[in-house]
Amino acid sequence: MTITAAFRASILYFTDDPACNPDAMRWHSDGLLLLSGEKIAAAGDYHLLKTQLPPELTVSHWPGKILCPGFIDTHVHYPQTDMIASPAPGLLPWLETYTFPTERRFQDSAHAHEVAGFFLDELLRNGTTTAMVYGTVHPESADALFTQSEQRNLRMVAGKVMMDRHCPDFLQDTAETGARDSEALIRKWHGRGRQLYAITPRFAPTSSERQLALAGELANQYPDTFIQTHVAENKDECHWARSLFPKARSYLDIYDQCGLMRPRAMYAHCIWLDETDRQRMAETQSAIALCPTSNLFLGSGLFHFEPTIAAKIPLSIATDVGGGTSFSMLQTMNETYKIARMGGHYLPAASMFYLATSGAARAMQLENTIGSFTPGNEADFIVIDPQATPLLQRRSQHLNSLEEQLFVLAMLGDDRCIALTYAAGKPVIRHKNTG
Fold first, then answer.
1. Residue 347: is it exposed, middle or buried by C-beta count within 10 angstroms (0-12/13-18/19+)?
2. Could you tell me which of 72, 80, 321, 427 has the fewest CB atoms within 10 Å of its CB?
């Protein structure tokens, strides 16, 4: 293996869930990250790996910085970038007043490309190198996101929304056109370079039984695609879904009956699940994307950590922009911690960083591709500055452990802490204050 690039700094990554395995966190205070082209070659202590350095290779050295795998955001709506922080008394009026009118514009390919470009750059500026992304009902929206992602050589998962009822006419497809357009996008984009496709029914109330059934058929026909949708976010939404599908045992069961629960299925929110729902998620290895800033902003409810952990459901955290109020996964960790505490659960900083990196990759069934510094994984990583602000500089003078340092970053950090972002071994964002 030819070493093509080398980076020296502190190194943080995970080989397992630190909540289950106390040896899962890898920390090298003076570390060396070696790349071979677009892939990880090795990561470890500098003094152990420096002998592998070719004599002609210049090492990028960042004293005081932390190298970490790029953050993974498992639930985000790129068309909602321009309506983030829109006021509304709840989820359903928020959709009617802001979301649907904003999404109407994405039938215009030029508009979709402009927003997609800004959206991806904003992700990268915040250290997010992979995301599971919703488009709109328009196929043009997915094409735009994938095109912009391909130009940046990013690992992105995205899909065209399927929505054939209970929404404005200008945002409706049909069961047949939704499935046909989705299949065309799968054939065009899934597995093309670093792009992956997600079958994307918006949520059960805006899809007919026929549309969900066709989505399930697509999921069966293309088993390595992803599935993404919403479930049990808000009590009013739950009641509405149950009224529309009276034969289903629960809101989640609507999807289960249509063949939409399997590995690589990502369900956002999952606040109002019951024990049977959680058992079914664990059995099918369907995953949860916890969206704390969105849940708090829309008043949806507080996620229940203890039963989720007990059921061993794959879990990750996500921004859910534009219901979510920040692109920063550090700020998302902040709110995740607070929601956990409100439910009586203590979430260590190591677990929060795991959920935003290796844990998210595992939830997506991509742990052998992204999310860690395991040799052979794709070289998506970030350079974190733990003293990026005057407050962080001052607080850093009084640290007693690595856990405390990571906790301070999660509580006080934001986009200013991301000094550089690398995708496939190449820099894609460099902050002004980085040499």
1. buried
2. 427
- Helix 139-152 / helix 175-189 crossing angle, nearest 10 deg: 20
Cβ atoms of 356 and 418 closer than 8 Å = no
Pairing of strands 128-134, 71-77: parallel
Q: Structure pTM?
A: 0.97
Helix, strand, coil share of the chain (percent; to 5) = 45, 25, 35
CA gap 62, 56 in Å, rounded: 19
Q: What pLDDT, in 10s, does the model give residues 252-280?
A: 999 999 999 999 999 999 999 999 999 99
What span, in angstroms and rounded, lies between the C-alpha atoms of 272 and 150? Answer: 37
For tokens 């999952």, name the residue: 270
Residue 36 burial by CB count (10 A; 0-12/13-18/19+): exposed, middle or buried?
A: middle
Q: What is the DSSP string of 151-217?
A: HHT--EEEE-EE--SSS-GGG---HHHHHHHHHHHHHHHTTSTTEEEEEEE-BGGGS-HHHHHHHHH
- Which of these, 70, 98, 76, lies nearest to 228 by C-alpha position? 76
**Per the structure block, which two tokens stand in for 391?**
């407050």
The two tokens of residue 377 are: 């994984």
Q: Which spans in 305-412 are helix H?
A: 305-311, 329-342, 349-355, 358-363, 390-395, 402-412
Q: Token pair of 129, please?
A: 């190198």
Per the prediction, the chain carries an average pLDDT of 96
Please name the amino acid found at residue 4: T
Residue 68: which H helix or E strand, with range? strand 59-69
